[in-house]
Write a structure and sequence with these properties.
Blueprint lengths: L3 E9 L2 E6 L4 E5 L12 E5 L2 E5 L1
Antiparallel strand pairs: 1-2, 1-4, 2-3, 4-5
Length: 54
């Protein structure tokens, strides 16, 4: 499974709204994302795990 990279565009309550580098929109519950995720964060989704980048 290839990694997918996202940038968080907005956080509304318990959900983060993000867009992948290929332009795909996604909505994910905040409790599933790494601690410290905020608007502008770069995330990697690989092997069913989220990683907060730099």
């Amino acid at each position: 499974m290839e990694p997918v990279f996202y940038t968080v565009q907005n956080i509304n309550g318990d959900y983060a709204y993000m867009v992948s580098d290929t332009g795909v929109n996604n909505q994910v519950a905040m409790f599933l994302l790494p601690e410290g995720t905020d608007v502008g964060s770069r995330l990697k989704w690989e092997n069913f795990e989220w990683e907060l980048l730099g």
